[in-house]
Design goal:
Length: about 250
């Protein structure tokens, strides 16, 4: 099976080459049939040119560069992941972050679990064996409440859906419509996959806080987008169905 590694980048000039090398060396060493699809989004530093020059020397790297849309404001990691996933060619897709937060050792286990029959498998910091590493405790609190709320409202059977790091079958992505433009893409995809009957699994992973570069994380925007997502999904999947059943 072919694996597509999709990596979002925004102003990651200090990380992008290290990350692309890390993933390509890992994939070569483990003998995977793979492609890497970095998606750079309106970077104002040297990220774009660095990715271009790396891809010219590496025939498994197929970079995408999002066009500037004057209407767009704020974070568009979600839109980037959607666009890159649509254009990728793998049977199994892995979303992994460009600031080198994710442990490469987890890739193989995610792939194996999907090959055993799971549809979407998360790199999980909050299940036994996983670790949030040096992630700020305040941030860790907010990243875990999202999953807790999803467990309560939708019975999502895993422990870390706010981390975008995961692998999934192409068929899952093809059968779900995703609408979040920013970081809320991570819980949106997980909850919709679960509510659509796909089998979710998880692998413990160790998270590493970014060492270089500037964070795109904005706490209040994240809370607002998560709450609006959860309310919408709760209405769409629970209340509307109850109303329909009673009518
Ligand atoms: N394509 C794209 N990538 C983005 C965007 N915002 C962030 N990213 C990338 O998505 C990944 C996650 O963003 P981060 O800034 O690390 O967000 P975070 O992990 O919540 O915060 P940190 O504490 O800084 O790690 C990184 O690889 C970013 O470069 C965006 O608008 N578009
Ligand atoms: Mg990060």
């Amino acid at each position: 099976m072919k694996i597509s590694f999709i990596i979002p980048f925004h102003n990651e000039e200090k990380n992008c080459i290290l990350m692309l090398k890390r993933v390509s060396e890992y994939a070569d060493k483990t003998g995977l049939n793979y492609e890497i699809v970095p998606i750079d989004d309106r970077s104002a530093d040297k990220t774009t040119e660095l990715i271009k020059s790396f891809s010219e020397k590496n025939n498994c790297v197929f970079p995408l560069f999002r066009k500037i849309d004057s209407e767009e404001k704020g974070n568009t990691m979600g839109k980037s992941l959607i666009e890159a996933t649509k254009k990728s060619k793998g049977d199994i897709i892995i979303w992994t972050m460009g600031d080198m937060a994710d442990d490469t050792k987890t890739y193989r286990e995610i792939i194996e679990k999907i090959e055993k029959g799971y549809d979407m498998v998360f790199g999980s910091r909050y299940m036994p064996g996983g670790s949030r590493g040096n992630l700020d405790p305040f941030k860790a609190f907010f990243s875990s409440w999202g999953t807790m709320l999803a467990r309560v409202l939708f019975s999502v059977p895993v422990h870390d859906i706010t981390n975008a790091f995961r692998g999934f079958r192409r068929s899952v992505f093809d059968s779900i419509t995703l609408t979040s433009s920013g970081f809320a893409i991570s819980p949106e995809f997980a909850i919709k996959a679960h509510l659509s009957g796909f089998k979710l699994g998880e692998i413990p992973t160790v998270y590493t806080n970014r060492v270089e570069g500037v964070s795109s994380f904005k706490l209040f925007k994240m809370i607002r987008s998560y709450l609006s997502l959860f309310l919408n999904l709760f209405y769409q999947y629970k209340i509307r169905r109850i109303k329909y059943a009673l009518s």
